[in-house]
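Students often ask why we bother encoding 3D structure as a string. The short answer is that it lets us treat folding as translation between two languages. Here is a chain of 227 residues written in the first language.
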Amino acid sequence: MWRVPEIWKDGTCVIIGGGTSLIDQFNIPAEVVEKVYTGVEDASVYSPYLSLIHNQHVIAVNMSYQLGAWIDVLFFGDDGFWKTKHDEIIAFQGLRVSFESEKIRDSRVKLLARNSRKKQGITFDPKGLLSWNFNSGAAEINLAIQFGAKRIILLGFDMYLDASNNQHWHKVYTSPLNVIKESMKKHLRGFPVIAKDIEGTGIEIINCSPNSTIQCFRKANIWEVLK
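And here it is in the second language, the structure alphabet:
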């Protein structure tokens, strides 16, 4: 089992989720978004608009790895993503991390185990375990902390549907709305436990997803945080 190294000790880490607020935060034009939604362009067309975070330590949640070569780490929490995106995952030049699975047998992916004794919150001791928290984005917060980050900035951690019922800034995943809404309820469970676990540790989590339904972290504008 891989042991997470403290490569970002006391540093800042940006975690990019899939929420549509990413589009608004970086003023990505509607015509560019439409090209991504329709498959005319891949997600890397967003990259120039995200230049503010190009020089940060960045972890991508699932599809966010497509945003640019400046992303340091790709984390995906299920082997279904591995099955559908295998070739692209291997082509990714950064660090690839996931949970152990019988279906992922590739030394190019660093594997961790889900902490069965602490499914929610933060597993601080990096002995090859992460708290799952019922979703990849929350698990990545735990990964960032094990990397040593003291300030963690969340982008696209919305947990809501936009006015057009879009959950993501891409349209790779398709599920019935009732399934999406129930999933989001489950995904929200771990964040309050994470907030409680970091109290008194000196770790700061800033939610730069303006209308996020995650209410347990301080909210701020990404441009103000990284100005």
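Translate back mentally: The CA atoms of residues 13 and 57 lie 5 Å apart. Keep this in mind for the problem set.
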